[in-house]
């Protein structure tokens, strides 16, 4: 029987480019931030529905309310926080037949509780458990929301709330090989207690012009493979992804070393976090999977093993998409 490689057909909605973090490798954050109004979001949601997407990926800069202009705009719309606004946009998505998957950053338990009831799954990249990366001159020096204590707390609270969750590590931002293993082990320790991690992403750093880390090299592919192999040993039953748009030509190599998921692929929107890295087509993914003796299947933003954890309001919608084996019909 052939192995299965999966992908999710999604629409990517970046609500705001305001962020209280200032990572050394990021071009997403803006010094003149904007926030999408509801009409703009609805237009994209409707495009996603027409394109038969099943997932809407909501993402935004962390704690954007620190910018007065963003806080003022939210208050004009009747919200005190971006999380309250996101909650209502998730309801809009559900009403259009889309399953929300939100990446809200380092948030509180109360925020997670509010979002749990309108999301099929949620996500937060740990990136690294190394506190050293928060030191002066390192990638997370100016990013309080990237401190491993803060991020690991969010992963743990999500576990307590039984939220199907996606997380992962970022390779090539100054961490050592040992720190990569330590990061994976920190995720495993939490998952061993709560069992809510459905997917792990092994993401490679890509240098971007105009950033502090623009002149740093990408990590060697051997480092990414080493992390992937370690993740496969620690997490043999969950989805393992190396983003294909960040690794054109290497997708099959990663399948051969333990990856089994290509992540979200959008027919409507670009990867707003990595705008120069285009999504591969589903046809290309199908070919790559076949070359490695895999069968490509479309999945929902929540993996079949976690269907029972989703809120009641979403179970009927999930049932309308899922075949008997849990993948999209």
Written description of the protein model:
- Helix content is 35%, strand content 16%.
- With 329 residues, the protein is of the alpha/beta class.
- Strands 1, 2, 3, 4, 5, 6, 7, 8 and 9 form a 9-stranded parallel beta sheet that branches.
- The radius of gyration is 19 Å and the shape is globular.
- Shape descriptor reads globular
The helix content, as a percent range, equals 25-40%
* CATH-derived architecture: Alpha-Beta Barrel
What pattern of helices and strands is seen along the backbone? EHEHHEHEHEHEHEHEHEH
Number of strands: 9
Write out the CATH superfamily name: Aldolase class I
Low-confidence stretches: none
CATH fold description: TIM Barrel
Structural class: alpha/beta
CATH class term: Alpha Beta
| Total helical elements | 10
Mean pLDDT: 97
Main sheet makeup: 9 strands, parallel
Task: Annotate the secondary structure layout.
Elements: E1 3-14, H1 38-50, E2 55-59, H2 68-76, H3 82-95, E3 99-103, H4 109-116, E4 121-123, H5 148-160, E5 165-171, H6 177-194, E6 197-204, H7 221-234, E7 239-241, H8 251-256, E8 261-265, H9 282-291, E9 294-299, H10 312-321
Parallel strand pairs: 1-2, 1-8, 1-9, 2-3, 3-4, 4-5, 5-6, 6-7
Helix pairs in contact: 5-6, 6-7
């Amino acid at each position: 029987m052939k192995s299965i490689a999966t992908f999710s057909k999604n629409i990517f909605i970046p609500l705001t480019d305001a962020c209280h973090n200032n990572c050394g490798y990021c071009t997403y954050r803006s010094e003149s931030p904007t926030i999408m109004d509801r009409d703009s979001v609805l237009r994209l949601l409707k495009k996603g529905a027409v394109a038969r997407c099943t997932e809407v990926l909501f993402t935004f800069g962390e704690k954007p309310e620190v910018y007065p202009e963003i806080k003022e705009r939210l208050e004009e719309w009747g919200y005190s926080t971006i999380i309250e606004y996101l909650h209502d946009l998730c309801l809009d998505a559900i009403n259009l037949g889309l399953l929300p998957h939100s990446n809200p950053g380092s948030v509180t338990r109360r925020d997670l509780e509010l979002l749990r009831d309108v999301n099929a799954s949620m996500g937060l990249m740990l990136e690294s458990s190394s506190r050293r990366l928060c030191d002066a001159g390192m990638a997370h020096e100016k990013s309080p929301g990237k401190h491993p204590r803060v991020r690991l707390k969010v992963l743990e609270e999500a576990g307590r709330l039984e939220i199907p969750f996606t997380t992962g590590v970022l390779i090539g931002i100054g961490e050592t090989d040992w720190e990569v293993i330590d990061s994976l082990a920190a995720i495993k320790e939490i998952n061993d207690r709560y069992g809510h991690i459905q997917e792990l992403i092994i993401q490679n750093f890509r240098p971007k012009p105009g950033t502090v880390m623009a002149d740093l090299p990408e990590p060697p592919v051997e480092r990414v493979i080493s992390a992937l192999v370690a993740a496969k040993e620690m997490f043999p039953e969950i989805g393992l992804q190396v983003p294909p748009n960040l690794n054109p030509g290497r997708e099959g190599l990663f399948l051969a070393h333990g990856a089994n998921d290509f992540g979200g692929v959008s027919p409507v929107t670009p990867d707003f976090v990595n705008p120069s890295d285009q999504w591969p087509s589903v046809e290309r993914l199908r070919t790559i999977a076949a070359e490695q003796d895999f069968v490509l299947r479309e999945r929902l933003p929540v993996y079949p093993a976690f269907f029972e954890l989703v809120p009641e309001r979403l179970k009927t919608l999930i049932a309308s998409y899922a075949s008997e084996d849990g993948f999209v019909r």
